[in-house]
Specification:
alpha+beta; HIT family, subunit A; 5-stranded antiparallel β-sheet; 3 helices; 5 strands; binds adenosine monophosphate; binds zinc ion
């Protein structure tokens, strides 16, 4: 069922507290934690607590929850004192998605080139 915890999902395990993470913010519906392999001085993942495979399926099934995730990226950026930052959702292995639980990468604290690679 979309939204239900998945036994084999790393991020569902972080939500459940079964795998440790450096949590920077938490709300009723979202968790934000530091990426284990940071690509910038600030690299935080913002996830819905409910399991959806990617950003598009999250937004289709639970638009308010998708908005919660986006709102939290801004809240984390403010907490991290970032004036500029990038929010990235990778969808599909060809785009670098490796964890099939929707997540926003919040990246900042260094120069960010445009267009991205
Ligand atoms: P993606 O490649 O877009 O699916 O993003 C998954 C991200 O999760 C990668 O940037 C990984 O470095 C990160 N990651 C994997 N395992 C963990 C973990 N245990 N704690 C925090 N971040 C993780
Ligand atoms: Zn999950």
């Amino acid at each position: 069922m979309p939204g239900e915890p998945q036994d084999d999902c790393l991020f569902c395990k972080i939500v459940a507290g079964q795998i440790p993470a450096t949590i920077v913010r938490e709300t009723e519906t979202t968790v934000a934690f530091r990426d284990i392999n940071p690509q910038a001085p600030t690299h935080v993942l913002v996830i819905p607590k409910a399991h959806y495979e990617n950003a598009g399926s999250l937004a289709t099934a639970a638009p308010e929850l998708a908005a919660d995730v986006l709102r939290e990226t801004q809240a984390v950026a403010e907490q991290e004192k970032l004036e500029s930052y990038r929010t990235v959702f990778n969808t599909g292995s060809g785009a670098g998605q490796t964890v099939w639980h929707a997540h926003a990468h919040l990246i900042g604290g260094r120069g960010l080139h445009w267009p991205p690679g």
